[in-house]
Write a structure and sequence with these properties.
The chain has helices at about 1-40, 40-50, 60-80, 85-105, 110-139. By secondary structure, it is an all-alpha fold. It has one domain (about 1-139). Helix 1 (about 1-40) packs antiparallel against helix 3 (about 60-80), helix 1 (about 1-40) runs antiparallel to helix 5 and helix 4 packs antiparallel against helix 5 (about 110-139). The protein is elongated and about 65 Å long. The two termini are about 20 Å apart.
């Protein structure tokens, strides 16, 4: 009977860490990706060219920036999923939040910045729930 409960608690912990890491990574990548899409005119170019039957002429720099920021979000999600102590989660989330605030100040994208901050907070709290559950299980 206890094996079933242990397995269920391990699945909950792993699930909480995955959900937290996923939300955190999305929060890290959200603001820079929307900024690149807006500043480079990616959506306008795609819609305009495709509606006329042309190949979109989005600059290579825009694609490279998008790939870099999406990769940064994936890397942040992986790093967050590796955190095993509550202090590590809090410090990593605080550093990412400080960078997000600085980026929002520089770009002026407050609405998307608020959404990205909410995603960071959600991811950090889910990761903390997983870490706390794992610590309670060990003791």
């Amino acid at each position: 009977m206890t094996d079933g409960w242990e397995r269920m608690s391990e699945e909950y912990i792993a699930s909480a860490r995955r959900r937290g890491a996923r939300s955190f990574g999305l929060g890290v990548a959200l603001l820079p990706v929307f900024t690149v899409i807006d500043s480079r005119g990616v959506v306008q170019e795609l819609l305009g060219a495709l509606s006329m039957g042309f190949v979109p002429a989005v600059p290579l720099v825009a694609w490279l920036e998008l790939a870099g920021f999406i990769g940064l979000g994936i890397a942040a999600a992986r790093v967050m999923s590796w955190q095993r102590q509550a202090v590590e989660v809090i410090v990593f989330a605080a550093l990412a939040s400080a960078l997000l605030i600085a980026y929002a100040l520089v770009t002026g994208a407050w609405i998307v910045g608020l959404l990205a901050g909410f995603m960071l907070f959600t991811g950090a709290s889910e990761s903390l729930a997983g870490v706390s559950a794992a610590r309670g299980e060990d003791s």
